[in-house]
Amino acid sequence: MKKIYLLLTVMVAANAFAQDITFSGCPNLFETSNYVFTKQSTPDAYGKGIYITSPVTGDQPCGGLGTCEFKIQWNNTASRWEFLADEGDGTFAAPYLIYYNSTGSASAANPPSNSIGTWVENTAITNGDCGGNLTTSNSNLSGDVHTTTLGINDINSEKALLFPNPVVDYITVLGVANAKDYQIYGMSGQLVKSSKFDTKINVKDLQSGVYQLVITTADNKTHQFRFIKK
Length: 230
What we know:
Number of strands: 16
Structural class: mainly beta
Signal peptide: 1-18
Keywords: Signal
Shape: elongated
InterPro entries: Secre_tail
Domain Secretion system C-terminal sorting: 162-223
Oligomer: single chain
Protein name: Secretion system C-terminal sorting domain-containing protein
């Protein structure tokens, strides 16, 4: 694969079971092409899905730039989803980082959509040839992806309780078994706070507004709550 200028046109397609992803973007770098990323049968060590263009045979067409293979995978160290381009032989031993999602979506088992956070162009690799970050106006991402900040695996907490709501300083959460950590998202999808779970959570530093609290348990289930910060 050539120093990528290639992935950036990715497109992803969804089957009836939403196990594939379709992505389209960066037509100025190479003609619009559709790439099908197939979800691998085994998730990564953190329970996140791994998606690879299929088949990985070394002859995947990549616009007018030759051949290339792509992967969408969670980077736990950097806490973000990444679009990767293989170095040329389908092994992904030293892949090129093309885009990464600025929201992180640590609670999501699948990648976020391009309307959640921002897929940031890695200009160190693309030389800026993609014209900026991915948005819904210049790209498309569909299939087995999350279309909200909380994602399809979130569950409502019928027996759990959050109070007070609205809140000024601290919220208390009771009834979530095996709670491990939490994230708080603003309504535009940005992650504003995260930490290990405690039944009493300090929200003094949050600006007034509406927020989503996502609590992740030890068995990777998530509980969601909406609260108002005065």
